[in-house]
Amino acid sequence: MTIAIFGNAMKENTLQEVTHILEFMQLRGVDVVLSQELRQELNMRAYAPFTDAKEPIDFAMSIGGDGTFLTTAAAIGAKNIPIVGINCGRLGFLADVQTKNVDVIMDQLIKGDYTIEQRTLLHVEPSRSELIMAPNALNEIAVMKYGLSSMISIETQINGAPLHKYEADGLLLSTPTGSTAYNLSIGGPLMVPQARGVILSPIATHSLNVRPLVVPDDWIIELKVKSRTGSYLISVDGRSQVMSEDITLTIRKADYTIKLVQIAGNSFVQSLKDKLLWGQGGKL
Prior knowledge:
By secondary structure, the protein is an alpha+beta fold. It has helices spanning 12-27, 36-42, 66-76, 102-111, 182-185, 268-275; strands spanning 2-7, 31-34, 48-49, 59-64, 83-87, 97-98, 114-119, 122-126, 136-137, 140-144, 152-158, 161-168, 170-174, 197-203, 213-216, 221-226, 231-236, 239-244, 249-253, 258-263. The strands form four sheets. The chain has a six-stranded parallel sheet, sandwiched between helices. Strands 9-8-19-16-11-12 form a six-stranded antiparallel sheet, with no helix packed on it. It has a six-stranded antiparallel sheet with strand order 15-14-13-10-17-18, with no helix packed on it. The longest helix is centred in the first third of the chain and has 16 residues, at 12-27. The N and C termini lie far apart (52 Å).
């Protein structure tokens, strides 16, 4: 078995956890490759970097928070490698395995005691040749005003038919996986990861009667943005760049999925209860 390990090399608690996991893997004869950042920070030249791995990789292990998981997912891309998230961060809907359970979880991986969930991604394609380095989003694609400019207009079409011109600070397009991320903070609906939809949630909309909308994930969404500055910001799972307003964005479901390792006892419903404190407010 070969496992690739990713983590935030700038955080001491992550580095400590990585060191512990490496010791565990060595005792059990599991081969390990490291992300380039971890390999350099820990000065562990004995481990091959992920990009040079010669053997097939059975699992990727993301050690950190949900941000680290998104970075890991971008690195894995369409390689079809299941990812298990170890939570060294805070909320952690993607990285939902607590560090205190790491030894047990690693034994379960070795024994094959787990299930795999398929998570859909969104793909964004600009109308001109401007390069988006990582155009696929596991959580969300955000189109927002740039800098201190006033709100922007986002003319939205779905499957070629006009939907609405949003007058807002931005528009968020989220996957079911991303429904518990930025979407949650701006009042968008929660979706179970197995659902097949895309959430369109306006950000600070000028019209109070415009609400989030869920559409099937096989529909094609087209966005045309107008701004006083002539530009806008696009963020793909937190990876941001400035775009000219004459660039139209086409957003559709990506042609591959991310495999998420689900350990027995962990579930989306249980995460909602634990992390959002559902059912702990007492009786009315």
